[in-house]
Amino acid sequence: MMKIALIGATGFVGQEILKEAISRGDSVTALVRNPAKVEKLDGVTAIQADALDTAALSEKLKGHDIVVSAYNPGWTDPNIQAVHIKASKSITEATKSAGIKRLIVIGGAGSLYAEDGTQFVDGEHFPAEYKEGALGARQALNDLRTETELDWSFVSPPFHLAPGPRTGQYRLGKENPVFDAEGKSAISASDLAVAIVDEVHSPKHKQQRFTAAY
Q1: What are the CA-CA distances from residue 32 to residues 6, 37, 94, 113, 122 (Å)?
Q2: What's the pTM?
Q3: How far apart are CA 210 and CA 155, in angstroms?
Q4: Distance between CA atoms of 139 and 86, rounded to whole angstroms?
Q5: pLDDT for 6-28, tens place per residue?
Q6: How many CA atoms, within 13 angstroms, populate the side-chain half-sphere of residue 142?
Q7: Are strands 160-162 and 186-188 parallel, antiparallel or unpaired?
């Protein structure tokens, strides 16, 4: 059993990670803005937390085996890029201050690399409504790449992430998207959660980014 501190447990991916971890017998502390929104499951403790309050967050993280961050400021936040960067740094510092060695961060797909070596977020066809958030997530990854104290991993979902059944199937990649035979890069949020919790239990990407898709 793992004692997991899950930041952002009510988000699209976070709630699937919560259910997947509990299904495996893990104990999860859900650190969220509004604990009332956390699904009431055996093995889950919901507490209010502010990702920007490093000192208070550190106290709430103490005693866990690993921190999993599915933090997102919210796509409607006009300062999403700056807030994402600041909160990501805060989460990293709070994890270290709490004496925890492992951190898994769920970011975006925009910083994945195309075949020509460019990152998708820099392309002219990247959706404008997601660009600021994607730039924030990219900087969070760049900041993690300089981090040597933690056994961190950064997860980039594929381009198409949607509700769907849990099959337990996925294929892994690192810096480039994983495409299927039809040229699609997709996975259900449930199966992305499987890949993430697999990494919690059997780490294979220490101080690396990885991605997962069908």
Answers
A1: 8, 9, 15, 31, 31
A2: 0.96
A3: 5
A4: 10
A5: 999 999 999 999 999 999 999 99
A6: 12
A7: parallel
